[in-house]
Design brief:
With about 200 residues, the chain is mainly α. It contains eight helices and two strands. The two termini are about 30 Å apart.
Length: about 200
Amino acid sequence: MGEQVVGEVRSVETARRPKGFTQEQLDWVPWVEPIRLDDADELQKPLLEGDRGVGPYFRLLARNPEVLAHRSANDKEIFYGREGLTRAERELAATVTSRHNGCEYCASVHSRFTSALSKRPNDVQRLLDEGNEVRIDERWDAVIDFVDALAANPPRATDEQLNRLRQLGFGADELHDLVLSAASFSWANRLMLTLGEPEVPA
């Protein structure tokens, strides 16, 4: 008899569900069966190279390799582009978007990056605890308000919010990066929220 393959789809126990937004590491449990790395075809394998390809989320997205390829390229451009916004503020925008959309998993990942890059873990935790209405300082407040407005459905960003950012020194490239971060993470959050759920590691 062949080896029995154990699926990864299961319900998360109530005690292992996050109690709110956190900077702690979370796991993610899929509601649709991901592919196994050993079963990846010639289109899927290159997209699953490196550490992140091992996790269930990317192995699930690899069921549609064209979409995963676009998502990965988009992600790389947003977070590692050479011009425009600082990496810390790109991560802040991803955190704000994830907080708005209620995606605890994405918020945990990008809040950790924001904390590490900005050296402001207490401010980041206040954002997670209090939500996007939090007031921190003039620059972060302007970013939070604009990105939160972009993440709304329908978006409600205003010329006043844009002008506020410009007065703080944000140029066209920085504003472009904020818009891309909000758009990309609204997409990413919806994928995470509809394909699985977060879990506190055992």
